[in-house]
Amino acid sequence: MPSASAIKKIRPLQLIAVIFFTVSGGPYGLEPLLSYAGQQGALLLLMLTPMVWDLPAIFTVLELNSMMPVEGGYYRWVKYALGARWGFYEGWWTWLYTFVDLAIYPVLFVQYASFFFPELAAYKIPVCLLIIWSSAGLNILGIVPVGKVSLLLSVAVLTPFLVLVIAFFYHHTGAVSLPRPSLKGIAFPSMGMALYTVMWNCLGWDNVTTYAQEVDKPVRSYLIAVFIAFALVIVVYFFTILVAQQSHIDFTVLSGQGFPALGTLISGRWLGILIAAGGMASTLGIYAAVLLSVSRVPKVMADDGLLPAFLNKAHPRFNTPYISIIICSLVVSLMVLWTFADLLIIDVTVYGAGLFLEYISLVRLRQKEPETFRPFRIPLNIAGLCMMALLPLAVYAIALAGALSSAGQGIKPAIFALGALLTAEVLWWVIKWIKPAAPIK
């Protein structure tokens, strides 16, 4: 197996593209926000939620990664700070949420491709399987090919929305009148779904650290790439929702037909086609980037004796965890029949639980190892870190409570997600029963 220094490493510009796709991939998926939050609440939630949901996560990830830039990222941090049991929880929950997350993107690809070929919807499953296994092949080739493809696809994703914004302001006459921001009048279940929509479109900052040893100058590269990607995501989201708001498009149409309908309304079918093509590129880029991040975690857990040993087998030529990639792809192949709304609730609920273990690990490592060198250090004491962690916890609690209070689409997937979280405890005892004397590293 090649040494760490011999592994091909991704460069900062490619890393920005991979991070962009891991956490966003463009505003595709934000379409239901205006239906849930209305004219007055959409932009307000879109700007506030990342401040209290994303920024604490970003700062936590940057500090922990600067302290421990290792393969396996968040799993290794939690295991080191809290012990093997909680490390297993973190790794298992991440694996579960990523299966759900990955299942979303092939389905969205078919939705956007159907803008060109409506009959393609009848072949949803074969097309989804083609995407899943093509991405598996790309990931087996290694991180550098994934980075190059992500860079190319990011241009294909961002260009249509740049054209959309320019076309809107070219055709729009007079000043842009923003509605007075307010959350009044939004039913609580709708508030929960609005939060889930924004949270899902802004999650995954910790996922980008699982391949830190494959990044050139990881501490500096992550610091630069993460903040550039965050700024890019917020700017693209803001202007896209602003244009949708000002266009007076029917929110039901936007939610059902997506941003291609907005492009068609603003400047004709040609722009709708361009945005639909960008949506296809977005789903492909997100899928490849997320698979890249999650495939490293089972390998590292297997190295530590928490998963079967065959998962840590590396490809003899490309030195990639190809068994892990294949197993991830097999599971996702079975999950493409879920609805988007259900997957979104399960995804964010399970992800959030793992994220809070990272906040606890951050505080614990500040207590245990206050003098350990951290090139990036959040300028807060332990009390300040605890207050910082309460912000995303509040958002998470409101979103989950909104889903559980719904008698319709929210309650079943929310309960399923809570049940999925409990499987970590069951499997931990199974591991202890199967290998009672086996050392866990």
What does this structure look like?
There is one protein chain. The protein has 441 residues and is mainly alpha-helical. Helix content is 72%, strand content 0%. It is built from 15 helices and no strands. It has a single domain, classed as Amino acid/polyamine transporter I. It has helices at 12-23, 33-67, 73-82, 84-113, 124-141, 143-171, 188-200, 218-247, 251-257, 259-267, 269-303, 322-333, 340-368, 382-404, 411-434.
Characteristic terms for this protein:
Amino acid/polyamine transporter I; 441 residues; mainly alpha; 72% helix; 15 helices
Helicity range: over 70%
Q: The biggest beta sheet, please?
A: none
**Number of discrete domains:** 1
Series of secondary-structure elements, N-terminal to C-terminal: HHHHHHHHHHHHHHH
Total number of helices: 15
**Mean of pLDDT:** 84
Query: Which structural class should the secondary elements be placed in?
Result: mainly alpha
Task: Let me know the CATH homologous superfamily.
Answer: Amino acid/polyamine transporter I
Q: How many β-strands, per DSSP?
A: 0
Ranges where pLDDT stays below 50 over 5 or more residues in a row are: 1-6
Gap between N and C termini: 21 Å
Q: What is the global morphology? A: globular
Q: Classify the fold: give the CATH topology.
A: Amino acid/polyamine transporter I
Radius of gyration: 21 Å
Q: Architecture, CATH level 2?
A: Up-down Bundle
CATH class: Mainly Alpha
